[in-house]
Amino acid sequence: MINSIKNQKLAWAITGSGHYLRESLGILQALENVDIFLSRAAAEIIKQYGFQAELDATDHKVYQDKTASSVPVELFYEGKYHTLVIAPATSNTIAKMAYGFSDSLVTNLYAQAGKTRVPSIIFACDTVPVLTSGFIESEAPRDNMVQVFPRQIDLDNVAKLATFEHTQVASDMHMLQQAISMRLAGLPK
Predict the structure, then answer these.
(1) What is the CATH number of domain 10-184?
(2) Which pTM does this prediction carry?
């Protein structure tokens, strides 16, 4: 049985990237009616970066990638979600989605969202426009900063993914926040 849009939630998937993880969790803390889906790597990274308290503070239901068949994706067939957000999304996840692989919880969520025509908003963390310095400063574990140089293949995969129907790619955190706000504002009250 399909739920009415008033009873639907936002599904938010997190992959194994520390790059913009803090900011993604900050957005999640301000949202209501969200289910969070963690890839196996995301569950590790959240602990490694010391962000478990921030995840818990969101007070949202959390699903982890613990089944071979990604059982939680069936919730899309039940009409439980109006939108899927994947943020941050690693270059590995982006590449898999761009070429139709659905072999993990997050890539399965994206495939099932597409098959049920649920709009997806994706923040590909390794593709923030490179500034004049030629690199991006990224947070690493234990409050260290590292330089990240997006590869051309990563940029190409994001461009390919951006052409998919029901998919919006955000190139920075401001665009991610704006896309989520616009999507939520456009839902029936």
Answers:
(1) 3.40.50.1950
(2) 0.90
